[in-house]
Amino acid sequence: MIVADSAFTYTPGAADWVRILPELILLGAALIVLLADLATPAGRKGWLALIGLLGVAGSAIAAALLFANGDGQSAFFGMIAADKAALFADFVILLSVGLGLLFSPGYVERQGITQLGEYYALMLLAALGMMFMASATNLMIIFVGLEVLSLALYILSAYIMSRSRSREAGMKYFILSSFASGFLLYGMALTYGATGQTNLQAVRVFMAGNAFHSGTGFGPLLIAGLALMAVGFCFKVSAVPFQAWTPDVYVGAPTSVTAFMSVGTKVAAFLALARVFDVALLSVHATWMPVLWAVAVLTMIGGNIMAVTQRDVKRMLAYSSIANAGYMLIAVVTGTQDALAALLIYLAAYAAMNLGAFGVALAVERSDGTGATLDDFAGLARHRPALSAAMSIFLLSLAGVPPLVGFWGKFYVFQAAIIGGHLELAIIGVLTSVIGMFYYLRVVWAMYFQEPRAVGIPAVSTLSVEPPAPAAAPASASGGGAAVLVAEPAVVAAPAPQEAYQPPVLAPGAWLGLAFAVALTVVLGILPSGFVDLAIQAAHTILR
Amino acid sequence: MPVPVSAYLTVSAILFTIGTLGVIVRRNPLVMFMSIELMLNAVNLSFMAFAHFLNSVDGWMFIFLVLTVAAAEVVVGLAIIVSIFRSRHSINVDELNTLKG
Asked: Between 20 and 30 A from A365 (CA), which of A78, A227, A299, A422?
């Protein structure tokens, strides 16, 4: 707390700026994209994605250096932490925005998006907000980060202005998300009133120092603050009963944006949730635990059961993301350091497989935004074997099948829950995962064992242009990426409009992205020890 | 007679409740949006009261951030609302039912 009438000076030094270097590089990339947009002729906007990707790569390198060499202290008078948990989250966010950018060229032109400069810049700015929110150690920065990411995502959701579904998604997201922000903010205000602090570390010290052992509790202000903050966060991570906006927004928004936001917002919101509830408010764990416990159970059961009835694969993935939020909430409820490590592992695993699954949905989607139902996936393996194989890997991983990365996410979360004394949550998690198995495998079944439907799915003869298998995609992201990303608009503009239905030709960047997601899902699944160690290291050095 | 902090907090809570009810009850996005702004400003009142009575500047700083964010939200929100109105000549949220949710 800064006392109002004392002379207070704080001069940020170079060390402060170094600690937010990943964010600064991403911000620079976003601004360069905006400027470069003016100098780039239409049809060559693929360059902008490349600039964005270079910014993401640079930011990831800075985060890696800070992870290896940084001192893990907070910057700007305790506003932002550069601890390893924040940097680990930065990696996951950068992975999701990187894949989102890779999926975009080709897809966005097909969907009739024209203002590509702003599109790429907003993707980067949303990622910037996510990184700020994930590293925030002050309620103010949590709020600012949240709003930066939300404002960018409102616009991105509504980006296909000619399509009513997209406009509607933007509107719904805007109203419901600002509504939730109001609750979160009121919760922060009351917590500030009860503790006199906005710095999470100071809140933690205050809570520990004022051990509320008197038996009378600790004031209605704090209780109300906790409840309102919990409501706000639950909205943001789309936990049941606050999940209503999720499927609509995920279906209506451009799929490249959905893929990115379904992962990125979860990373940011869960890191902030963990910092507020598992770090700052850990000493009153018993007070908030029952509430989040109930939300976690409802989310796991509700998300999985609602996903079963969906026939649209994008919608199914939206409900699946709700179900996954439930598993992540288990880790937050448990609240031990192991649980925080498990949360980070789960987030990383979720990023790889969920982005991949949305990437495949984006590849089969038609130019009017439809065409990702179970019927469209029927018999897909026959004419798009590589795509079907990738989708199967992502879905099996989401279902938690052992050699893939999704299994380890679930394994560590359930293990942490059992060790942390929440056996019942682990049991509910396992049981609801079985429901999950059904709707994930139904898509795999449709792709491999069903006849293609006449509607929408192309005849085999039009499929002479099967793109190269993922393995053949260029291995170096930046070197080979330059040529493919820039060459790509010409590919999309390729003719043959008079065919009954031309399958979307997937841009090389998207193949690269899918190959990368497959590689992560499989390699991290087979050799998890490396990244699990990093996550454990990160969780143990989270600023306390 | 000095006004106690509880008075400010009560007014703030009432304003916040009015805003919440407005979002839930009204069907015009513009009015819903105004209700959200009311909620944010109710929170600002709380921050102001706490900052004054705790003699701490954190609350004041928070108010500046909230005001800035609210202004940015107006820009984005109005743009989306206007674009919907242009294409439909109606902005009743009950008619926004292309997505079934």
From this structure: A299
